[in-house]
Amino acid sequence: MPNFLPPDFPSRLEFLHRVSLDPIRCRTPVRPWAPLTDDEWEAIAPSLAAMGCGLSLTRRAGRPPADTRARLDAIFRAVTLKHPRGGRAAWAQLPEAHGKADTVSRSFRRWAHAKLWARLLMEVACPTCPAALRGLTYWVCCAFRRGIRIMGLRAITLARRLRLHSALPAPSCLLWDRDLSEKVAPILPAIIAYRAGHPDWRVPKGLLRAVDGLVRLCLGRKPRRWMEPA
């Protein structure tokens, strides 16, 4: 039987890492919430200013938070809270000391639209990231995965490519996989083209089952709340 796999198709070992090992070993250790230190604030503040998130020097629509540092502390507190039955907590569970939950959630969504969480995720993944900023990796991952619905499916691809699986809402093998989809896409057309050129050839059932399994793996499935990493 001819080989219908593209030349750059993942090997068995790569599949083992992708499906079984990476979702475990690429997780970021949990860091309990605490207010930002002065060093951490100095490390993260330039990113907020660059994205116009409360520290922009140019005028923007709406009022910036009176205390951007306190607002960021509140967001990190909210995104690291857990629901009693597992998974993320509701915004309403944010302690009153951090301000109104609706106000904090609006800032979070506005900053997600401004691509702040994506920028921070790329910064903490950079090998030259300052130690103070790298120490915020877990909180950044929690904020990023909370904003995936706003940022779209490309956010899943970004977190997987950066190998920051704590930024994903579920194990990566259960989520849509763009990179794998691009490698699987040529297989079925190649089978059809070969069948058209060899009328006597019959497609083995095992091959069809294998292709069906790959397609299902590419598409993933709808994650449940309890699937979210710690």
Polypeptide structure, described:
The chain has 230 residues and is mainly α. The chain has 2 domains: 12-23 and 177-219, no CATH class; 24-169, no CATH class. The protein contains 12 helices and no strands. It has helices at 12-25, 38-50, 68-80, 101-113, 116-125, 131-134, 137-146, 148-151, 154-161, 178-184, 187-197, 205-219. Helix 3 (68-80) packs across helix 7, helix 5 (116-125) runs antiparallel to helix 7 and helix 10 (178-184) packs antiparallel against helix 12 (205-219). It is elongated, with a radius of gyration of 22 Å. It starts with 11 loop residues before the first helix and ends in an 11-residue tail after the last helix.
Q: Would you summarize the structure shown here?
A:
The protein is mostly helical and 230 residues long.
